[in-house]
Amino acid sequence: MRIAVIGTGYVGLVTGTCLADLGNETICVDIDEEKIQKLKKGILTIYEPGLEDLIHRNIEKKRISFTTDLADAIKRSDVIFIAVGTPPDKDGKADLSAVKSVAAEIGKNMNGYKIVINKSTVPVGSGDMVRSIIQDNLSFPCNFDVVSNPEFLREGSAIDDFMHPDRVVIGANDIKVAEKIAQIYSPLETEILITDVKSAEIIKYASNAFLAVKISFINEIANFCELVGASVEDVSKGMGLDKRIGQAFLKAGIGYGGSCFPKDTNALYETGLEVGYEFKIVRAAIDVNENKKIRFLEKVIKVIGTADAKNTKIAIWGLAFKPNTDDMREAPSIVIVNGLVNAGFKVSVYDPVSMEQAKKIFKETVSYVDLYESVKDASALLILTDWNEFKQTDLKYVKSLLKKPLIFDGRNLYNPEEMKKLGFIYYSIGRKDPDTI
Ligand code: NAD
User: Do residues 54 and 177 both lie within one domain?
Assistant: First the structure.
């Protein structure tokens, strides 16, 4: 099949590359000229393990191409995936302006029957909206179908998630159309669930909201464990061994971030309000998550004190919202680093791959240094992302560099007993705070 994937961000680039690898002739389109020029040369525009090799292989086999010419890509394709961003607008709703503009272009450039697939995460009813925009922009009568095919890949393991998904959801109001799209995914050994368009749209939001609820739930249990001196890790293990609950997403931390959970929970909440329904559980998950970052920040500030903030250096390890990605959208590190800067501290940051992203966000307000340089003469080290690199550091050396052996670990990377033996004052999540302070 000749496929166009519109939007070559985290989802579009992975989707386009994987579809090419499955043998389809794939055209990846973006409005970002610089991005397309780099991709044409095989230079990656995002950090995603395994993606570079896959792109090079498919460029060599001439199965994938990159362009900014949307009209031409539409005309040359049988199937068009919309994979543009749907960021939050000022009210927390999904901003559908990119989806709408692409739908209008599709309408204008239709030259025969095509299937248009919404892969972007879009609120229920967006399939109908895309259909009517295309219809309104057709320059001559033309048949087409609009399908919902939400994406569930995770940054950091996106290729594996795409190639080995737990399920593929196809929402179509005509079973024959759904079956055509199912053929694209037939090389993947997975369950293909065919639903109507609206149900497919809701599956994506409901799944992300449920996972966010799970994270916020264990984060509340962690708050409670800290107050009563229990271990959230033992609690979550004990809960997760129950097959009805499961271990996944029961890791306490400083809250979820990224481009999906925060925006999708808010968008679901807002979509509910639009039809007169308040999602109370989703609201609570959002509030607990916001509070988690603030709670961590407040604890750090309370322990260190602000009296001599301008002469106090704080080291930050980890800026990405999770390991194996450079994505910093809605990362808890943003709230925490900005909070420390605003309180007057000197902040030195290090992340294995997010430093370029970080510079765009924090600009001149922090120093960008390497792993060990960050802790030199620092009064505390904060760990905000659970990169493997941090699990394997020479902690004795770290202690020798720090001005004070104080660690706030937002990801529970280390064993509190061992940290005590090494002489650290070690704060972590959902465990009793050190007696020393
Ligand atoms: P992204 O911001 O990384 O990429 C979006 C791309 O679309 C950008 O390259 C942008 O330049 C391009 N674009 C914007 N307007 C365009 C237009 N008019 N024509 C062509 N290109 C245009 O976003 P993303 O993370 O890939 O997310 C895309 C969608 O997939 C969102 O709806 C998101 O919620 C959803 N999603 C994301 C993930 C994830 O982990 N990132 C997972 C599942 C679903």
Answer: yes
SS3 content of the chain, % helix, strand, coil (to 5): 45, 15, 40
Q: How many domains does the chain have?
A: 2
Domain identity same for 151 and 44: yes
Cα separations in angstroms, 77 against 1, 104, 110, 276: 8, 16, 10, 40
- Closest Cα to atom 27 of ligand 1: 85
Specify if 267 maps to a domain.
no
Range of 173's domain?
A: 2-195
Start-to-end CA distance of the chain, whole Å, equals 64
Q: Measured from the CA of 29, which atom of ligand 1 is nearest? A: 20
260 is catalytic: yes
Three-state SS annotation for 78-142 = CEEEECCCCCECCCCCECCHHHHHHHHHHHHHCCCCEEEEECCCCCCCHHHHHHHHHHHHCCCCC
Q: For every one of its 437 residues, what pLDDT tens digit does the chain have, with 9 covering 90 and above? A: 899 999 999 999 999 999 999 999 999 999 999 999 999 999 999 989 999 999 999 999 999 999 999 999 999 999 999 999 999 999 999 999 999 999 999 999 999 999 999 999 999 999 999 999 999 999 999 999 999 999 999 999 999 999 999 999 999 999 999 999 999 999 999 999 999 999 999 999 999 999 999 999 999 999 999 999 999 999 999 999 999 999 999 999 999 999 999 999 999 999 999 999 999 999 999 999 999 999 999 999 999 999 999 999 999 999 999 999 999 999 999 999 999 999 999 999 999 999 999 999 999 999 999 999 999 999 999 999 999 999 999 999 999 999 999 999 999 999 999 999 999 999 999 998 886 44
Nearest to 220 by CA among 264, 261, 252: 252
- The string over 295-323, giving b where at least 16 C-beta atoms fall within 10 Å of a residue's C-beta and e elsewhere, is bbbeebbeebeeeebeebbbbbbbbbbbb
Tokens of 204: 């994506």
Residue 308's CATH number: 3.40.50.720
Instruction: Classify residue 213: in a domain, yes or no.
Output: no
Nearest to 77 by CA among 152, 140, 11, 19: 19
Give me 121's structure tokens: 């995460």
In this structure, the residues whose C-beta lies within 6 A of any atom of ligand 1 are 6-12, 29-32, 35, 70, 83-86, 98, 101-102, 120-121, 151, 153, 155, 259-260
Q: Residue for token digits 């609201």?
A: 283
Are residues 187 and 310 both part of a single domain?
no
